[in-house]
Every structure is written in structure tokens, then in C-alpha cells.
């Protein structure tokens, strides 16, 4: 548009101007030069204006393009933020689920460990109870063996006594035969002699022989009667002991059967039918070896499974640590992404502000370009330069925002700010695998624990049966040939039999020595050494029991005496003390002061009666009249004691309450 043409049009509308107003009075050449310069400037300005308009149009097109790109970037950013939020939610959900599964698995693992410990403790308790039962059974068996030995010893003593009595009986029979022989000799002598003198002489010889043999016969008869009584007593004692032994054996058999039933109920290894045949020794040995092998294998399997459980625990802990580290890394990256997103938002806001400001400047420039003539060309040039700077700044901001958006998109694409789906899948797969392993291991542990318990019970029962000799010789044989229960019992019996034989031989030698020793007196009696030692032992036991009973009676009498004296002191108010001989008695009142200011009554006994009474103490001076009245005149000691008790009570208790200050 031409400015002058516009001015000319407006002047034409207002009327013609004068030459002076139009400046025609100046030099035409100068005016032509000025006009040419003005036209050149106008052409330049028009060219610049067209260029500026073109630039403005380009800038508007570029701004529109950048605005479209900004919308695209905004949409992409919103999509990325939405995907990031979704991924974060899924990650947190999977993490919570993984933590919950881990917690549940740990709880179940601790529960199974607790059950395993309880089962182990119950197994140990059953083992200890079984060992105690075996110990009690062994003690009862040992007691039975010792009782049997003692009874066998007493039976041997009784047999020796019976043999001694039989020996004495044989001696009596021999003496009877000798007596018959003497009678026959006397009868022969009497028949061979004639006359009264011969008969008297034979009678005298026979009488002397009878007198000589009579004391020995009486002594022997007495000894035989005594030995007979002892033998009868020994037989009675033997029968009682045998009866007690049968009762003990029956009780032990019942306890043994009860223990066997308890072991059968605990182990459940014996057949339920009583007619079922027991396995032989080879079968038991093979079962024992197989059970030992299974027990060893079960122990090794338990140790291996325990090590695997510990390894799984370590893996769980390591996986938990890795999960925590990944979560921390994800949190850190999320914070960085949020910070970068915030910076991108701030840059975009700044770019939008710059864009708005540039738009306002362009609008102002457009309005100013169509304004009045008061606007100079220098102002337009400065504004155009300013707009160009703003456009460059806006482009730089847009490029920075685009660059940040591309970097953020690249980082998100490369997985720098989120958790990869593969990692989460792998973690879930590992968790499922560990859970399956834990379940399998727990079931294996339960099975191995049950098998171990059964094997321990069977091994213990078989070892007990083999060690105690509880086997059936008809269907079983002992594994050991030299050191078996039957051989041990036979050795013990052989040793006892040898000992009894040696004792019997020693007794026979002593009897022979006594029979050969004719220089000893015939009226001296001999008893077996075992009987003598037994009688001495019984005598010592009786003396000890008598001493203990006497000491106990003394203690009881002393205690009862103290109780009686305390009862008398509580009921009658007098403390009674006896001296060592029991002849003197001292009485002290409950209500009398102690020491010299009190009262003590001393009674001296003569031939079982109270002969004299003596009063000592400060309170005795005021009791002479009462003593004369009650003791001398009335001969009543209880009345005197009652009056003394009443006066002491009044002086010490009621008198003090009334204000009496007497004896202290």
C-alpha cells in the first residue's frame, strides 16, 4: 500500500491545498531528489513490510505446527503417565501379593517346624518312658534273681540241716544196734552162768552199761528233738518263702505281660492273633539289619532335607532382599521420572507463556502497523527485532521440551523408570516353585518322621527282646552261640552248683573230723556255720530293732510328757518340773513373778508319798497362814494350790488393773 496515495485520496476529499502548504515553493530539483529518496525508502519499507508479513505468516504456520506437536507430546506424555501409573499399581499389587505369599509360606514353615519339634519331643518322651520301663523290668528281674539265689541258699541250708539230722538219726540207730548187742551179750552171760551170784553179776554189768549210756542217749534224744523242731521250722519257712516267691513270680509275669502289651500298643509290630507263629532268628536279624539301614537312610534323608530347607530359607531371604532392592530402585527411578516430568511441565508452561507473550506482541505490532502516522519507523524496527528474538527463544524452548520428551520416552522405552514384566514373571515363577518345594519337603518330612518313629520303636523292641532273652526256643534260635541268655543262665547255675558242692564237701569233711575226734566231749553240741551266722545276724537285727524301738518310745514319752505338762500349765496355771531321780517336784505359778520375787514350791517324795513341802521366793512370806490351814490342818495340797493361784492372780493381774503396785 502506498502512503502518499492514501494521503492524496484523503486530501482530495477535503479540497485542494495551496502551493505553500504543499511545499511547492521549494526547489523542484531538491524536491525530486527528496521524492526519489522517499520513494526509495518507501519501496524499502514496503519490501521490509512484505518480508515481515511473510515472516509473520511463516511464524504463525510454525507456531501452529509447534502447537500441534505440543498437543501430540502432551497426549504422549499423558499416555506415558497413565501407563506408568498402571504399571506402578500392578507392581505394587504383585509386590503385596508376593509379600503376603512369602509371609504365609514362612508361617506355614514355622508351623511345620513347631509340629516337627513337638513330634520329636513326644518321640523322646516315649523313648525315655520305654527306657524307664525296661530299667524297671531289669530291676525286677535282678531282684527276682537275687531272691531266687537267697531262697536257694536257704534251701541248701535246710538240706544241710536235714542231712545233719539224718546223720544223727543214723548215729542213734547205730547206738540202738549197740544197745541190742549189749542186751544180747548180757542175755548170753546170764544164760551161761548158774546160780544167783551169776545173775546178780550180769545184772550189775548191765546196770553199769545202762548208766554209762543213759546220759549220752538223753543228750542225743534232746539234740534230735531240737534238730527235728528246727527242720520243721525250716520247712515251714521254706514253704512260706516258696509261696512268696510264687506270688512274686506271678506278679512279675503279670508286669511282664503288661509291659509287652504296652510295647505292642506302642510299636504295633507284633501280630494281633495269638496263634500266629513268631519269626525265626534269621528273619529277625534280617529285619533288624534292614531296619537299621532304613533308620540310617531316614536319618541321612532328614539331614539332607533339613539342609535343603535351610538352603531354601537362605534363597527366600536372598529373594526378599533382592525384591526390597528392586523396590527401592523402582521407587528411586519413579521419583526421578516424576522430577523430570515436573521439569518438562515447567518448561512447557514457560514456553506457553513465551508463546502467549509473542502472540500479544504480534497482535500489538499488527494493530500498531495499521495505526496513525505518529508511529515512527524506528519503533517498528525495534519491535520486529524483539519479535524475532522472542521467536528464537520460543523455538529454543520448544526444542528443549522436545529433547526432554524424547529422552524421557527413550528412558521409559529402555526400562529405566519401570519394572520389566519379565522380572515380575520370573519372581512370581520363583515364588511358586519355592512354595511347591516347601510343600513337598514338608510332606516328605512328615513321612520320614513317621517312618523314623516306627523304625525306632521296632529297633528298640527287637534289641530289647534279643538282649533280655525273650524268645521262643521252639520257633527261634539265639543269634550268639557263646554269649546267649541260656548259656549265661547255665553258667550261673553251674557256678552255684559248684559252690554248693564245695560247701557240701567241706561240711562232710568237718563231720568226718568230728566223728574221728573222740577226745572231744560228747555233750558239746555243734551246729552248721551258716545257721550260726544266720542266727547271729538275726540276733543283731533284733537288738538293733529293740534299740530303735526303745529310742522311739523314749522320744514319744518325752514328747507326750511335754504336751501333758504344757496342758497342765495351761489349765491349772502351775509349771511342773521333775528332777533326774524323780523324787523332787518343783511347782511355779503362772501368775507369780519370775526370779527371787516370785514363788516356787518344792515337794520331796518319800516312799512314793509327798513327805515335805518347801516354799521359796518373796511371795512365800505371805502364804504361811494358808499353808498352815490347808497343809497342816486340812491335809489338802490342791486347796492350797488353788488359794495360792487365786492370790497370785489378784496381785499380778486384777490388782494392777486396780492400781496395785506390788511385786515386780
TrEMBL record:
The keyword Nucleus applies. SUPFAM superfamilies: Mitotic arrest deficient-like 1, Mad1 (SSF75704). Residues 109-185, 320-347, 384-451, 490-524 form a coiled coil. Residues 1-31, 47-77, 260-279 are annotated as: Disordered. This is Spindle assembly checkpoint component MAD1. InterPro entries: Mad1 (IPR008672). It comes from the Eukaryota. One of its GO terms (biological process) is attachment of mitotic spindle microtubules to kinetochore. It comes from Dioszegia hungarica. PANTHER family: MITOTIC SPINDLE ASSEMBLY CHECKPOINT PROTEIN MAD1 (PTHR23168:SF0), MITOTIC SPINDLE ASSEMBLY CHECKPOINT PROTEIN MAD1 MITOTIC ARREST DEFICIENT-LIKE PROTEIN 1 (PTHR23168). It is found in: Nucleus. Belongs to the MAD1 family. The keyword Electron transport does not apply. Keywords: Cell cycle, Cell division, Coiled coil, Mitosis, Nucleus. One of its GO terms (cellular component) is mitotic spindle.
Amino acid at each position: 500500500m502506498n502512503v502518499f496515495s492514501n494521503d492524496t485520496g484523503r486530501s482530495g476529499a477535503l479540497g485542494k491545498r495551496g502551493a505553500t502548504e504543499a511545499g511547492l515553493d521549494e526547489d523542484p530539483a531538491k524536491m525530486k531528489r527528496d521524492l526519489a529518496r522517499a520513494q526509495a525508502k518507501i519501496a524499502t519499507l514496503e519490501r521490509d513490510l512484505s518480508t515481515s508479513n511473510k515472516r509473520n505468516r511463516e511464524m504463525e504456520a510454525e507456531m501452529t505446527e509447534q502447537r500441534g506437536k505440543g498437543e501430540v507430546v502432551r497426549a504422549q506424555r499423558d499416555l506415558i503417565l497413565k501407563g506408568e501409573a498402571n504399571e506402578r499399581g500392578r507392581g505394587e499389587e504383585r509386590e503385596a501379593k508376593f509379600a503376603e505369599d512369602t509371609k504365609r509360606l514362612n508361617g506355614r514353615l514355622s508351623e511345620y517346624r513347631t509340629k516337627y519339634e513337638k513330634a520329636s519331643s513326644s518321640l523322646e518322651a516315649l523313648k525315655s518312658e520305654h527306657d524307664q520301663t525296661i530299667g524297671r523290668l531289669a530291676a525286677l528281674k535282678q531282684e527276682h534273681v537275687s531272691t531266687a539265689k537267697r531262697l536257694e541258699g536257704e534251701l541248701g541250708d535246710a538240706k544241710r540241716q536235714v542231712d545233719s539230722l539224718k546223720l544223727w538219726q543214723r548215729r542213734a540207730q547205730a547206738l540202738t544196734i549197740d544197745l541190742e548187742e549189749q542186751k544180747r551179750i548180757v542175755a548170753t552171760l546170764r544164760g551161761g552162768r548158774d546160780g544167783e551170784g551169776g545173775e546178780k553179776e550180769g545184772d550189775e554189768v548191765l546196770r553199769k552199761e545202762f548208766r554209762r549210756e543213759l546220759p549220752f542217749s538223753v543228750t542225743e534224744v534232746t539234740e534230735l528233738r531240737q534238730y527235728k523242731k528246727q527242720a520243721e521250722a525250716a520247712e515251714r519257712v521254706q514253704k512260706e518263702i516258696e509261696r512268696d516267691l510264687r506270688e512274686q513270680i506271678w506278679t512279675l509275669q503279670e508286669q511282664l505281660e503288661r509291659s509287652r502289651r504296652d510295647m505292642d500298643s506302642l510299636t504295633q509290630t507284633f501280630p494281633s492273633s495269638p496263634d500266629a507263629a513268631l519269626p525265626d532268628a534269621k528273619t529277625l536279624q534280617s529285619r533288624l539289619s534292614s531296619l537299621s539301614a532304613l533308620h540310617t537312610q531316614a536319618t541321612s534323608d532328614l539331614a539332607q532335607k533339613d539342609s535343603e530347607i535351610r538352603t531354601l530359607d537362605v534363597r527366600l531371604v536372598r529373594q526378599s532382599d533382592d525384591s526390597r532392592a528392586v523396590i527401592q530402585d523402582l521407587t528411586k527411578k519413579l521419583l526421578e521420572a516424576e522430577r523430570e516430568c515436573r521439569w518438562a511441565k515447567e518448561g512447557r508452561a514457560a514456553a506457553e507463556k513465551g508463546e502467549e507473550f509473542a502472540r500479544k506482541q504480534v497482535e500489538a505490532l499488527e494493530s500498531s502497523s495499521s495505526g496513525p502516522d505518529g508511529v515512527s519507523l524506528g519503533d517498528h524496527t525495534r519491535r520486529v527485532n524483539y519479535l524475532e528474538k522472542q521467536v528464537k527463544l520460543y523455538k529454543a524452548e520448544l526444542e528443549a521440551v522436545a529433547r526432554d520428551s524424547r529422552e524421557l520416552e527413550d528412558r521409559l522405552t529402555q526400562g529405566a523408570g519401570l519394572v520389566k514384566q519379565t522380572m515380575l514373571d520370573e519372581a512370581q515363577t520363583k515364588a511358586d516353585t519355592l512354595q511347591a518345594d516347601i510343600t513337598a519337603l514338608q510332606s516328605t518330612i512328615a513321612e520320614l518322621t513317621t517312618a523314623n518313629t516306627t523304625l525306632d520303636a521296632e529297633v528298640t523292641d527287637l534289641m530289647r527282646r534279643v538282649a533280655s532273652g525273650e524268645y521262643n526256643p521252639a520257633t527261634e534260635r539265639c543269634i550268639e552261640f557263646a554269649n546267649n541268655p541260656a548259656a549265661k543262665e547255665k553258667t550261673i547255675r553251674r557256678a552255684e552248683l559248684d559252690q554248693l558242692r564245695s560247701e557240701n564237701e567241706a561240711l562232710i569233711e568237718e563231720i568226718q573230723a568230728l566223728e574221728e575226734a573222740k577226745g572231744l566231749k560228747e555233750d558239746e553240741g555243734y551246729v552248721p556255720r551258716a545257721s550260726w551266722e544266720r542266727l547271729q545276724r538275726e540276733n543283731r537285727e533284733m537288738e538293733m530293732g529293740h534299740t530303735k524301738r526303745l529310742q522311739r518310745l523314749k522320744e514319744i514319752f518325752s514328747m507326750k510328757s511335754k504336751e501333758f505338762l504344757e496342758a497342765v500349765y495351761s489349765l491349772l496355771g502351775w509349771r511342773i518340773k521333775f528332777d533326774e531321780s524323780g523324787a523332787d517336784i518343783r511347782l511355779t505359778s503362772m501368775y507369780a513373778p519370775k526370779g527371787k520375787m516370785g514363788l516356787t514350791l518344792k515337794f520331796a517324795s518319800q516312799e512314793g508319798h509327798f513327805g515335805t513341802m518347801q516354799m521359796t521366793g518373796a511371795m512365800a512370806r505371805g502364804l504361811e497362814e494358808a499353808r498352815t490351814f490347808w497343809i497342816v490342818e486340812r491335809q489338802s495340797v490342791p486347796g492350797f494350790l488353788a488359794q495360792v493361784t487365786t492370790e497370785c492372780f489378784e496381785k499380778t493381774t486384777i490388782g494392777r488393773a486396780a492400781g496395785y503396785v506390788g511385786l515386780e
